[in-house]
Amino acid sequence: MILADKIISLRKKMGWSQEELAHQLNVSRQAVSKWESAQSVPDLERVLQLSQLFGVTTDYLLKDELETESYTGNDAPSALRKVTLAQANEYLALRKSAALRIAIATVLCMISVIPLFLFTGATEFGYLSMQAETAAVGSLALMFIMVAAAVGMFIYTGHQAEPFAFLEKEPFETEYGVRGMVQEKQKAFRNTSLKGNIFAVSLLILSPIPLLCGAFSEAENSNMLTLLFLGITILLAAIAVFMLIWVGVQNAAMEKLMEEGDYSRKNKENGDKMGAISTCYWLIATAVFLTWSFLGNAWDISWVMWPVAGVLFAVLRVSIATFSSKTES
Q1: Burial of 77 (0-12, 13-18, 19+ CB in 10 A)
Q2: How distant is the alpha carbon of residue 246 from its chain centre?
Q3: How far is 293 from 304, CA to CA, in rounded Å?
Q4: Model confidence pLDDT, tens digit, residues 286-307
Q5: CATH number of the structural domain 3-62
């Protein structure tokens, strides 16, 4: 049996198409097609990759007289976990519903501060006939209820995703048909994703306009107007973030199954380090926000640190990725 026939046989045993095998080897589908039709022969590096991928010896691949598959010591051709078509569809359905819950939970956290400064401001400026302490306690209670609901949604969503946590952390294989199915879903979702991102980014850019209108207002009730417009600004930003998360979670789910972008095998190797850095970063950011807000009584302006922290975090991620690639090279 020649090498071409062995590649065909082993590929079909793994349940892969030519395109899926090409993805595993980081070559074109045309290259695999030429190997299997004996129009060309893979170089030594690709032969070694094929040996590792199928779990067979290089002797078996290269020696035509060896008809019986000779494995490298593993009982199965591959030790990687395999994702079936049913599992892939289940995961995408879970993440589609999770995208909505995560987006809603994030919005609840963002807008939870609005009642706090609106009620306390309305009481202070005489628009509500209640004691300031009562308004503060009521608005704080509402804020904690909203945050508690959001945390509950985060915990529930995380629990649902636990069986598929390996998709983000370790390399895996996909059953025949999975990549094609995901590619079709990516293609169908691409237009929605583009429109959603354009809408969200535009809304984020425009969201400070109400706050600026309130800040420069010369009306008698300008202080209360400023607080009201601040609430509108936060609400607009929350709507934009909702759209970014709803689109982003679904795109990320498809990238995980395809092992692309942030979830490529190379990036997974650096995932633990980036995860620890992210945790420390956001814990510090939260501590700074709470300290500034409570000690400085700056709820009307302290929210600005979150978009700033987001931009700085993106810069940090890019810097770490650039440094890691330079170190590896």
Answers
A1: middle
A2: 10
A3: 11
A4: 888 878 877 777 766 776 777 7
A5: 1.10.260.40
